[in-house]
Amino acid sequence: MQQKINYILSYFSALILIIAIVYPKGHSMKSFWIFLTASTLLNLAYTQYIIGFKWADLKNKWDFLIFPFLLNISAYFFIAYFPNLTAQIPMALFFGFSLNLVYNSLVAIKYKKMALPVTYRNLLMALSIIVVFLCSSLLINISLYWISNLLYLFLSHVALLYLIGHFLIKHMLVAPNKYSHLYNAIISLIISEIATTSAFWSVNYPKQGAGAGIPIGAIFVLIAYYVLWGLVYYMIEGRLTKKVTVEFALIGAFSFVAVVFTTNWLPL
């Protein structure tokens, strides 16, 4: 029954998103904000239902609200970057699919007895990568077009990354150690510095143009997050080996080089 509710609500949220991106054509953007607010409140209310309404439940599981809130907000603005429905509708459906996975994961966490099953641990890691990428895209665009203060960009990324890291450490790791939150803070600071430095390259990937492309800084943040969190995850779990380190380093280096060489850089 719970899974059916998760499924229905997730794809109903995707439908609201599709209406939000279709309806404003020829209307004011006020309707977009109304749909965004309605969808966000609906998903936060359902997350609260999963958590429970007792103070003890909210105190222990307040971080359940992080993923639905960030995914909902960032998906709306990310999909709005794209100029045509051919791209927007499949991405809206993928948003519904991702939201369904988030809710299934939260339910699994709520009822876990010991360690979270490995399937859900991998799922949470994948979802965290998606959310970090979408939110970083939004934060960088806000910095580029509305708030030029780089301190905002740095601090907003620190908050974003630390909150997601807190959730993963608390619910995904089998055996967090006393340094886990220190590792989380260090990773958050390093990746936030990468995001801030990348802001000097106001270039969209794969091309520069209105309504198309993704801030290249968000892609660098995605690569750094995948590599650093992957290494720390294996280290905390006691499974970090030379082979694993080399694999992550190669993936990170290859991804960075590929993005640099396939980006349509602005002329000097």
Automatic annotation (TrEMBL):
Keyword Calcium attributed: no
Residue ranges of the TM segments: 7-26, 32-52, 64-83, 89-111, 123-144, 150-169, 181-201, 213-236, 248-266
Superkingdom to which the source organism belongs: Bacteria
Keywords of this entry: Membrane, Transmembrane, Transmembrane helix
Protein name: Uncharacterized protein
Organism: candidate division CPR2 bacterium GW2011_GWC2_39_10
Lineage: Bacteria, Bacteria division CPR2
